[in-house]
Specification:
- The protein has 363 residues and is mainly beta.
- The chain contains three helices and 25 strands.
- The strands form six sheets. Strands 2, 4, 5, 6, 9, 10, 11 and 14 form an eight-stranded mixed beta sheet that branches. The protein has a four-stranded antiparallel beta sheet with strand order 1-3-8-7, with no helix packed on it.
- The N terminus and C terminus are likely disordered.
């Protein structure tokens, strides 16, 4: 409330009168947003104003129970350049007054306030900045090849130490393909490293995409930041698909009987994907792909063999399955075709074509 209102018997009427006389009491439309960043990152704290500039705007940083240290005043520009050497305050035609802090350190954590005073009425907008220190994943590099049954042991850690901001809840989570593997939570003041180990045995048909993520919430005076922050990636490993040897071969989805002229698909599971080889009864290679068409020269009882091969961590693996050509299936199909042709009705068009052909032949 303006000091001028002290001389009026009814302060509310004075407040309304000043509003009408001076227009909008503050040009601040939106204050900076709460942020959680990692050491070394860059952050921008934006104070949106009607003037789209830093005119009349002051910036302060509160550290713990201190009243706050001003590092920018509209009338003087940037202050205390030695302490705030990595702070740059600038005007933006779209956003207003922006504080850019580069190469963040743990000591940059604090409560930041953009304020403006008009007619002795001060408007303030606060935001929490929490800087965390994330350690690389351990081990730094995950094995390029992980086979079924291999043990996978990994760990991640984060330093949440801050003299100024105390998270009210912390959760560190290992994720694999968006599924939570294991988590640890702490409601104590996070003043030391949090470490989260994870260990398991690799399973067949599993895709490993390990990512360690942090989520937390911060309360400043019970109201300033009472919400969970977005998940922050602490560290991650590149995607790995578990290797495993070739398994059971199937022909045309478990079909049992085959005939001459029929195409057979040989399919086996495995990673890396298996290579295929077909051999005839003389053990001559007749195909190097997963499908093979039985030739018309084949005889009943002929045997063909499909072999699927792959290699897991340098160890070769293979599995084979044979098929036998049967005659009944082929003869039944042929007989059915002949009967179908013989029983086809004679159409007028077919009869006319036959007569014309006969006349041409006689000529």
């Amino acid at each position: 409330m303006s000091k001028l209102c002290r001389y009026f018997p009814v302060e509310m009427w004075c407040f309304i009168l000043l509003t009408l006389l001076t227009g909008v009491l503050s040009s601040i439309r939106k204050g900076p947003s709460n942020s959680v960043k990692k050491v070394g990152d860059t952050v921008q704290l934006i104070c949106k104003t009607d003037t789209n500039s830093c005119e009349g705007i002051d910036w302060t940083k509160m550290e713990g129970s201190q009243s706050g240290t001003a590092f920018y005043r509209s009338a003087y520009g940037q202050l205390n350049p030695k302490k705030f050497a990595n702070y740059v305050v600038s005007s933006d035609a779209r956003d207003g007054c922006i504080v850019t802090i580069s190469n963040l350190s743990l000591t940059d954590s604090g409560v930041f306030t953009c304020s403006e005073e008009r007619n002795q009425i001060e408007e303030k907008k606060n935001a929490v900045l929490l800087v965390i220190e994330a350690s690389p994943c351990s081990p730094r590099v995950l094995d390029a090849e992980i086979a079924k049954g291999d043990s996978v042991s990994i760990s991640c850690s984060v330093n949440l130490h801050s003299d100024y901001i105390k998270p009210s809840s912390v959760q560190l989570v290992w994720l694999n393909s968006n599924f939570s593997l294991r988590s640890i939570a702490s409601n104590e003041s996070a003043s030391s490293n949090l470490t989260l180990p994870y260990s398991s045995k690799a399973e067949q048909n599993e895709t490993l995409r390990f990512r360690c993520s942090l989520s937390l919430s911060v309360n400043q005076d019970g109201t300033l930041y009472d919400q969970s922050s977005p998940n922050i990636e602490i560290c991650s490993f590149p995607t790995r698909t578990v290797l495993y040897p070739v398994t059971e071969i199937k022909f045309n989805e478990n079909q049992e009987q085959f005939a001459k002229g029929e195409t057979v698909l040989c399919k086996a599971e495995g990673h890396p994907p298996p290579a295929y080889e077909w051999k005839d009864k003389a053990e001559k290679v007749v195909s190097n792909v997963e499908s093979y068409t039985i030739t018309e020269k084949s005889s009943p009882g002929d045997v063909f063999e499909c072999t699927a091969k792959n290699s897991v961590k340098g160890v070769p693996h293979s599995i084979s399955k044979s098929l036998i050509v049967v005659t009944e299936f082929l003869e039944t199909k042929a007989l059915g075709t002949e009967l179908s042709s013989a029983s086809s009705p004679v159409t007028p068009t077919g009869l006319l074509v036959a007569i014309v052909g006969l006349l041409l032949y006689e000529i």
